[in-house]
Amino acid sequence: QVQLAESGGGLVQPGGSLRLSCAASGITFSINTMGWYRQVPGKQRELVADITRGGTTNYADSVKGRFTISRDNAKNTVTLVMSSLKPEDTAVYYCNSQHTLFGRNFEVWGQGTLVTVSS
User: Fold this and answer.
1) What percent of the chain has pLDDT over 90?
2) pLDDT by residue (tens digit) across 3-62?
3) What residues contact 16, with CB distance under 8 A and at least 6 apart?
């Protein structure tokens, strides 16, 4: 069992910054990639950024240069620093972890945290 606990969402003005954090607990040695996704009503959940255990990062084109993802393997945490936020970044942000355990791949989702970018 793995659980993801997210924190850091909220209301921020356009151009502002926000930091999202996610901590994994449970069978954390099985974690490979960790990342952040977001979803707005009526749209599919989309990848924002992810990072492998080795530190390779991947970003959606819409957030490149504005968002930075990092992780601490020792603490089993992943952090997303969001800068130059735009109203279109408003969404529920979900932490995601991908695992391999006894040859089986599976993923775990956090409960989601709301980010609202508005003046």
Assistant:
1) 88
2) 999 999 999 999 999 999 999 998 888 889 999 999 999 999 999 999 999 999 999 999
3) 85, 117
61: left (phi over 0), alpha (psi -120 to 50) or beta: alpha
* Cα separations in angstroms, 66 against 23, 32, 51, 69, 106: 22, 24, 16, 10, 29
- Tokens linked to 52: 């492998």
Q: What's the token pair of residue 77? A: 């945490």
The type of residue at 83 is: S
DSSP state of 43: S
What's the chain's average pLDDT?
95
Q: Is the dihedral of CA 49, 65, 60, 43 positive or negative?
A: positive
